[in-house]
Design goal:
By secondary structure, the protein is an alpha/beta fold. 36% of the residues lie in helices and 13% in strands.
Length: 414
């Protein structure tokens, strides 16, 4: 801990916390969730049997496709598996390159390796932490086949620029929308704006069932391939023991679908509350020197706010390192996190050829030599995350976040 903070009134030094109440709870559930689970249980149709997925799974896929304004949805075991399936369905072959931002969860890149493609990391925009389209274009080679824009924190990436880039170079676009349920770009919900979009329903997500995922698309052919790949290579109208493709068993259960159907009933109202609270919090944080909420593009008509991300400038806090700022803020009762590390610095990428045949056929990348300056700065110095449950609280909760930051700043300056 830095010796800059000696003010005894700070909670970390034995003072009173700004916030003493628990953080807003997550997940939120009630008797409708229990009733849906009971229906699935009593139906006796807990998963796919003889080619029939059962009512709950079909109902959820239709409802989620409608929610995301997509023609098709395929329910899957996880967001990670959804990315793997979507990339495979897009026709990627061993050695093909996939451009992805360096500031994201590992699944964005590990899914590439799992289909024997080569992830090529590029930097992000300094005020959104979403993929930098100019950096993406500069990374294109004759082997590039796809680009994966990640809607970080639920804020849509620049899909105009990404889709234009894809058209120009003949690339597939797979949206990593794991955190972006209900997010909108220019009035349209993300996911099927690209060729396919992948969502996660893991426990922390705005729409969750513990674990789960989905692919959405408007492309009929891509839908059939995704459906087949997630269902052991079968076809939607094929026989149970007919397998024209080599696929996996990545099917969702009826219990997960039942919970998601119930959770969908709250999704729009929860999104409204997050947006309202985020707007208020932004107004408060804009008043604090050294704190800059991430920019929301004017073309983003709905931010999902899975994360509320702001940038911290230690110069306004008397040089207090970000790591110490986080410790002190958490001690004040404001749960927050440091965010991602640069993805290429993970040990999994030290010897990627161990996991994937891609590097025997494609471009050999020494990830230890990769450096994305904006990502490095975000991870080490700037990015602070507040998790989505905060934004389901009250205006008073938002005030406590801002007041705690001001308290830390005052102590640092003293």
């Amino acid at each position: 801990m830095s010796d800059l903070l000696t003010n005894s009134q700070l909670a970390i030094n034995g003072g009173l916390k700004v916030r003493t109440e628990p953080q807003p709870k997550w997940p939120i559930w009630d008797e409708t969730d229990a009733a849906g689970l009971d229906e699935a249980l009593r139906s006796g149709w807990w998963g796919v049997v003889g080619g029939n997925p059962g009512e709950k799974i079909v109902e959820f896929e239709r409802a989620f496709a409608q929610f995301q304004q997509a023609k098709h949805a395929v329910s899957i075991t996880s967001g990670t598996a959804a990315l793997e399936i979507a990339l495979r369905a897009c026709g990627l072959e061993a050695g093909d390159e996939v451009i992805a931002p360096a500031y994201t969860f590992i699944a964005t890149a590990s899914a590439c390796l799992m289909v024997n493609a080569v992830p090529v990391f590029v930097d992000v925009e300094p005020d959104t932490y979403n993929i930098d389209p100019a950096a993406a274009e500069a990374a294109i080679t004759p082997r590039t086949r796809a680009i994966v824009p990640v809607h970080v924190g639920g804020c849509p990436a620049d899909l105009d620029a990404v889709t234009a880039l894809a058209r120009k170079h003949g690339l597939k676009v797979v949206e990593d929308a794991a955190q972006a349920h209900g997010a909108e770009w220019k009035g349209r919900r993300v996911g099927a704006i690209g060729d396919a979009g992948c969502f996660s329903f893991q426990s922390s997500k705005n729409l969750n069932c513990g674990e789960g995922g989905a692919c959405v698309t408007d492309d009929d052919t891509l839908f059939v391939r995704c459906w087949s790949l997630h269902n052991v290579g079968r076809l939607p109208e094929g026989a149970w023991y007919e397998h024209p493709l080599l696929g996996w068993n990545y099917r969702m259960t009826a219990f997960q679908a039942a919970v998601l159907l119930s959770q969908l009933g709250r999704a729009d109202e929860q999104a409204r509350r997050r947006t309202e609270n985020a707007g208020y919090l932004t107004r408060r944080l804009d008043e604090i020197e050294g704190i800059a909420p991430n920019r929301v593009d004017d073309r983003v008509t709905r931010h999902a706010y899975h994360l509320y991300i702001f940038r911290y400038d230690s110069a306004a806090f008397n040089g207090l390192p970000k790591s110490d700022f986080l410790k002190v803020l958490n001690a004040e009762g404001i749960g927050c996190g440091a965010g991602y590390t640069p993805l290429y610095r993970n040990a999994a990428f030290e010897k990627p050829d161990v996991y994937s045949a891609a590097f025997a056929l494609g471009r050999k990348i020494d990830y230890s030599k990769v450096c994305c300056p904006v990502t490095e700065r975000a991870a080490a110095e700037e990015a602070v995350w507040l998790y989505q449950a905060w934004l389901l609280g009250t205006t008073e909760d938002m005030d406590q976040v801002a007041d705690a930051i001001l308290k830390v700043q005052q102590a640092a300056r003293e």
